[in-house]
Amino acid sequence: MKKKIAKDLLSIKAVFFRPEEPFIWASGIKSPVYCDNRLTLTAPEVRNDIENGLAELIKANYPDAEVLMGTSTAGIAHAAITAHILGMPMGYVRSGAKDHGRQNRIEGKLEPGQKVVVVEDLISTGGSVIEVVEALREAGAEVLGIVSIFTYGMKKGLDRLAEAGVKNISLTDFDVIAQLAAEEGYIKPEDVKRLLAFRDNPSDESWISK
């Protein structure tokens, strides 16, 4: 599964490597990789693999799930399609409460005590998805965990998830994609070490000159 999804993402350039000319994230971090899982929605075959994969992860890891909740905005479509496959209700969590109408942060019906799985597109440092988990817990939900398409596996993200007491299961991860990218000629084999050095410590930019 991990290799299949990695191949899908590479084929549509949802994950694009550029170690020689790093991308700059909103946080200012220089990165050798750019990940845009929104592109999966415009590639029907890849989208099908991903949504069915997410459904399988939920059935295998969270069999008691009652509601899926997408993260805003990237996780909404994936939560909706996966919920449709599973025949489950879904909703989504805004990054902040609306300033008009009912001023909801959580959209969709959610009863206190319901068992929820959060659907996210990717996880890097984990901050935004943990905010979603906390909002759901404050609303009385029992958050069973997270499913995501892709995770970087960064220490900061793993530590934050552990501290929040929530687990994440991803369809694929940075290590698998980096190795496959080298095997299929997207990057040079010697670049894999540079990519993993970035993953291990994003604030250390020494990988750029290696």
Word description of this protein:
With 210 residues, the protein is of the alpha/beta class. Helix content is 40%, strand content 22%. The protein is built from seven helices and ten strands. It has helices spanning 2-11, 44-61, 74-86, 127-138, 155-164, 174-183, 191-200, and strands spanning 15-17, 23-24, 30-31, 33-35, 67-71, 90-93, 106-107, 115-123, 142-151, 168-173. The strands form three sheets. It has a six-stranded mixed beta sheet, sandwiched between helices. Strands 1-4 form a two-stranded antiparallel sheet. Strand 9, helix 5 (155-164) and strand 10 (168-173) form a beta-alpha-beta unit. Helix 1 (2-11) crosses helix 6 (174-183), helix 2 packs across helix 3 and helix 6 (174-183) packs antiparallel against helix 7 (191-200). The two termini are 32 Å apart.
Secondary-structure content class? alpha/beta
Q: What's the main sheet like?
A: 6 strands, mixed
Task: Give the overall shape, derived from the CA principal axes.
Answer: globular
Regarding quaternary structure, how should these chains be classified?
single chain
Number of helices: 7
**Overall pLDDT confidence:** 92
Strand order of the largest sheet: 7-6-5-8-9-10
Low-confidence stretches: 98-102
Proportion of residues in helical segments = 25-40%
The total strand number stands at: 10
Distance between the termini: 32 Å
Task: Report the portion of residues in β strands.
Answer: 15-25%
Order of helices and strands: HEEEEHEHEEEHEHEHH
Radius of gyration: 17 Å
